[in-house]
Amino acid sequence: MVAMEDEVTRVESVHYLEGATGHAVVSTLFLVPAGGLLLADRWGFAAVCVVVATGVSLNGLSIYAWDAVRERFETLLGREESEPDRELRPHHVSDEMKAELIAGLLLVGGLIVALTVGSVVLRTVGFRVGLSATAGALFVGNVCGLLWSSRNR
Q1: For 27-68, how does the pLDDT look when each residue is reduced to its tens digit (9 = 90+)?
Q2: Does 112 fall in a domain?
Q3: How far apart are CA 105 and CA 100, in angstroms?
Q4: 121/46 Cα distance (integer angstroms)
Q5: Number of domains in the chain
Q6: Among candidate residues 29, 65, 64, the one with its CA nearest the CA of residue 50
Q7: 29 is in which domain, residue-wise?
Q8: With pLDDT > 70 as the criterion, what percentage of the chain qualifies?
């Protein structure tokens, strides 16, 4: 059976766009036309661009967060020895699976909190101000994320 790594071709010139970094670049590329549309008073199309940019950024952030949270819980739970044994005993959930479940629970909880906060902000400040603030915050967050990732390379 062929592993997934064997099927993926890596191009060194775009290696820096892997994972969350690539998501920040793509999200920013959606925010540029959103800014122009906001200035042109085309709020409907701008909202679509901002929603797509937000989704792409959240996906990239979830990649980073998933790895960080999963690794943190794996170290807290300890690693099991993978030595096979021949004992008959009830099924035991591995520490790796526990870390995956906890990380998933935290990410789903974080998404629920983010959607709730976003909804409250939009209701409080209004659609236009909320959309403009979201676009600005996303742009600043993407640029800061890209600067941070370039420093850590």
Answers
A1: 999 999 998 998 899 999 999 999 999 988 888 888 777 777
A2: yes
A3: 9
A4: 18
A5: 1
A6: 29
A7: 19-78+93-151
A8: 78
